[in-house]
UniProtKB/TrEMBL annotation:
It comes from Culter alburnus. One of its GO terms (cellular component) is plasma membrane. Keywords: Glycoprotein, Membrane, Receptor, Repeat, Signal, Transmembrane, Transmembrane helix. The keyword Transmembrane applies. This is Fibronectin type-III domain-containing protein.
Length: 850
């Protein structure tokens, strides 16, 4: 029984489960498009609503999912599928939106759903379809049309045709999604445009359709500011954002506190002394922008520019008056500022309902442009716009005239500077000059007046005044010395700064200058310098390369005293002219070039020297370059034709070249004269030198070739020597002699003076003697100095330091040893070397003849 019951229950549960799986809990499905102002021209959002019959339990919720699929109905192409996850409570009504890539009018769209949860998945609902216009169109239609899109949008257009028609081959509609609908590729629009047209043409037909879309931006305005200009209304303005690109009915619409406004301006009534909120809404088809501002209107007062500005001018002041366009301005505290000729006036003006001011410290007879701007003095916010007015002040008496004097061509002239507009205080009509009791009227074009001749030597008092419609200026008096001041030393200005020694001055100094080479009676310029600036002054002339004469005067009781006078240039330039009259003079190989200086007015600076460049004719390379300070130069040149370029130079550079072509010639007569004179001079010098040398020959011999001293033996000595005499029949007689303290005898005939101690003689043939002698070795390399020897055989005093012995001679008696006794030593001279015939141990020898 129990088994059957258990099986029945299990079978019942299985049946119930199968029944739940086949059931369809989704009910009341509704498919529709979202309605907008332009949805008939192209609907993009598909809405799906349904009800789920399976509800959660009391106060229970569970997660449920729904699968949604969208198809193009006619072709049953799946275009979208999505799973929606919701938490289902007691409410079983659900809503889902889907934005289509093409307008929903292009073709029918079908939707189906199914429910899935953790227990089971339901079956698909039947298809619920939103019908497109491709089913019932009777003419060509293009969607979307007349719609507004954001810049950067990608839009797909569709074209619905009649049956059996296809788009033309050049059309952009290339893809078919139903029997009568074709779509384009996604078209990108990256710039704003008031209209963009898309056309759909049909093959074989003149009919076509089209669409226009508008590309732009949503509103982007900012900075809403509300102010009051008259305390009765509020004027709100804002900064415009980027151009939306939309015009006409699609333009941006502005509303301020619900009131439609003009572009960038809106006016509302003001509520003084009360904080007010202003809200601006800017709206177009692409979006909405909201701006707000909050303030008390009395704290946002921005006055308009003063109106009806008028003036009352005087010589040094003016009164300005204006009016306001506010009804209650008289009690409103204001502050005003003034701009005078483009610069701010040195003070501001304030007061309730301020409508007039006075400007002082103005220049007489001057043109002025005045601008006035005002604002709230209690709660200052901003200055108003500028109002302006132009006027001219009245004339006033002129300032004192600056007077000076000048000596010129034995006359004395009084000079004065013309007054400028600020100094004249009006239009100068004349000058009045007073000399003593005489008064003269001088026209306005005269600034230099001759007051005396060179015959007058006394000081003169001169007074000069200027006159305009307001009257005469204060007189200017100058005392002109009665003596000329040109008898002074003129120095050179070495720099741009001038200095002078201190001089007791009661009224300062005067620096005077004028062009040195173009002096006229009225070309003088001057500058008066206070006494406190006596140490230095600056050159004020502007003309470079112009030579000026500058004088410095000290002023004592209005009487000028000349201190110094100089000449110089403000800035030196290169000479503008060339040297003059370039010539050459030849004297043999010497050529003298000479020339005149550059004209004074063309020097443009102090001439520092001249540059001479020498070229050989036909050559571009100089053979000589010479710089000289004098206007002449001497050159040594070979014969030939030369070109010379001579240019003067200053510290500013070199001037132009003066050119001379010169042919150097050497004449025969000059060559002969030069040769004879040269030879004669050389001969005369040689004769003079010869005579002097002859007369001074002993002195020259002693200076150039002094005698060589003979060697001497000091002390007592004794020697034995051999003395030979030529005999008849070929025999020689030789004797050995002993000599004391005497020189060797020179010859047999000159034996006087010898102290002979002993004598031994031997005869032997002379031939045999000479033969033996010639055969004896001659290896002695050094001998003592010569003694006096005879023409025949001479004897030599033996030098005891060498221990020399006389060689043995055949057939001759042995010569006794020579002995030398010396008390002092003897140093032989090193230059006497003899390699001829030598007799050893002999004091005399005879050199062998060559």
């Amino acid at each position: 029984m129990s088994v059957w019951l258990l099986c029945a229950l299990l079978f019942s549960l299985i049946c119930q489960t199968e029944q739940d799986g086949r059931s369809l809990p989704i009910k009341e499905v509704e498919v529709y498009v979202e309605k907008t102002n332009t949805s008939d021209l192209g609907a993009w959002v598909l809405n799906v609503k349904w009800r789920d019959e399976l509800k959660a339990g009391n106060n229970e919720s569970r997660k449920v999912s729904y699968d949604v699929e969208v198809y193009y109905t006619e072709q049953m192409w799946s275009v979208h599928s999505e799973t929606i996850h919701v938490t289902q409570g007691n409410t079983a009504l659900h809503h889902w939106k889907w934005t289509s890539p093409i307008p929903l009018q292009c073709t029918s769209h079908s939707v189906r759903l199914r429910r899935r949860d953790q227990y089971h998945i339901s079956e698909w609902t039947p298809l619920y379809t939103y019908k497109g216009e491709d089913l019932s169109a009777t003419r060509i239609k293009v969607f979307p049309r007349d719609q507004v899109f954001m810049v950067g949008s990608n839009i797909t257009f569709c074209c619905i045709l009649e049956k059996e028609n296809v788009p033309s081959s050049d059309s952009e509609f290339v893809k078919r999604i139903s029997n009568r609908t074709y779509i384009t590729k996604s078209l990108h629009f990256d710039s704003p445009s008031s209209n963009s047209d898309i056309r759909c043409d049909v093959n074989g037909s003149s009919y076509s359709g089209g669409s226009t879309v508008f590309i732009g931006y949503p509103p982007d305005d900012h900075s809403l500011t509300c102010v009051t200009r008259n305390l009765t209304s509020v004027e709100c303005r804002w900064e415009m954002g980027r151009d939306t690109g939309l015009r006409g009915v699609r333009r941006t619409i502005y509303t301020l506190n619900g009131r439609v406004c003009e572009i960038n301006k809106c006016v509302l009534p003001a509520v003084p002394n009360q904080v007010t909120n202003w809200t601006l809404i800017a709206k177009n088809d692409l979006g909405v922008k909201t701006l707000t501002d909050t303030a008390d209107p009395t704290h946002r007062v921005l006055l308009r520019a003063p109106s009806k500005l008028s003036h009352t001018a005087h010589a040094r002041s003016v009164t300005l008056e204006w009016s306001w366009d506010m009804t209650n301005c008289t009690s409103f505290p204001m502050i005003c500022r003034v701009m005078l000729n483009g610069s701010f006036y040195n003070k501001t003006f304030s007061g309730k309902g301020l409508s007039s001011i006075v400007l002082d410290h103005l220049q007489p007879f001057a043109n002025y442009t005045v601008n006035v701007s005002c604002g709230s003095d209690e709660h200052f916010y901003k200055w108003s716009e500028w109002s302006n007015i132009t006027f001219t002040t009245k004339e006033d008496i002129p300032e004192a005239v600056d007077v000076w004097f000048k000596y010129f061509n034995q006359n004395t002239y009084v000079l004065w500077k013309p007054l400028n507009q600020q100094q004249s205080h009006g239009i100068i009509t004349q000058y009045e000059l007073t000399k003593g009791k005489r008064r003269e009227i001088i026209g306005i074009n005269t600034l230099c007046y001759n007051v005396t001749t060179g015959n007058e030597r006394s000081d003169q008092n001169i007074t000069v005044s200027a006159k305009n419609s307001a009257g005469l200026s204060l007189p200017t008096t100058i005392i002109i010395p009665g003596y000329p001041d040109n008898e002074v030393h003129i120095s050179r200005i070495s720099s741009r700064n001038g200095e002078w020694e201190y001089f007791n001055s009661t009224c300062g100094y005067v620096v005077e200058w004028f062009p040195t080479y173009t002096e006229k009676q009225c070309t003088v310029q001057w500058k008066k310098i206070p006494e406190s600036e006596h140490a230095t002054w600056y050159h004020t002339w502007k003309q470079n390369g112009e030579k000026y004469t500058v004088s410095v005067y000290a002023c004592n009781e209005n009487k000028p005293v000349l201190l110094q006078r100089s000449e110089g240039y403000a800035i030196e330039q290169k000479p503008s002219g060339r040297v003059q009259d370039l010539k050459g003079k030849q004297n043999g190989r010497n050529l003298e070039l000479y020339w005149n200086e550059v004209p004074l007015q063309q020097q443009k600076g102090f001439i520092q020297g001249y540059k001479v460049i020498t070229f050989l004719s036909g050559s571009k390379t100089p053979v000589n370059t010479t710089v000289t300070k004098e206007p002449r130069v001497n050159l040594i040149l070979d014969p030939g034709t030369y070109t010379f370029h001579v240019s003067a130079f200053t510290s500013g550079g070199y001037g132009g070249n003066a050119t001379l072509i010169f042919n150097m010639e050497i004449k025969i007569f000059q060559m002969i004269v030069t040769t004879v004179v040269g030879c004669s001079a050389a001969t005369l010098v040689f004769i003079i030198i010869t005579v002097l040398c002859y007369r001074k020959r002993k002195w020259l011999k002693k200076l150039l070739y002094p005698d060589i001293p003979k060697p001497k033996l000091a002390g007592k000595w004794t020697t034995k020597g051999m003395y030979c005499t030529q005999m008849t029949e070929g025999y020689m007689k030789c004797e050995i002699q002993e000599v004391h303290g005497s020189e060797c005898p020179a010859t047999a005939e000159s034996t006087h003076g010898l102290d002979l101690i002993s004598s031994n003689s031997t005869l032997f043939p002379a031939k045999h003697f000479y033969q033996n002698i010639s055969e004896s070795p001659a290896d002695v390399s050094y001998y003592p100095p010569l003694l006096l020897c005879a023409q025949k055989l001479t004897s030599i005093i033996e030098n005891p330091s060498y221990n020399m012995t006389i060689p043995e001679l055949d057939n001759v008696a042995q010569i006794s040893e020579l002995t030398l006794e010396m008390q002092d030593s003897y140093l032989p001279a090193p230059n006497f070397v003899q390699k001829d015939f030598v007799v050893k141990d002999s004091t005399c020898y005879k050199p062998q003849s060559a």
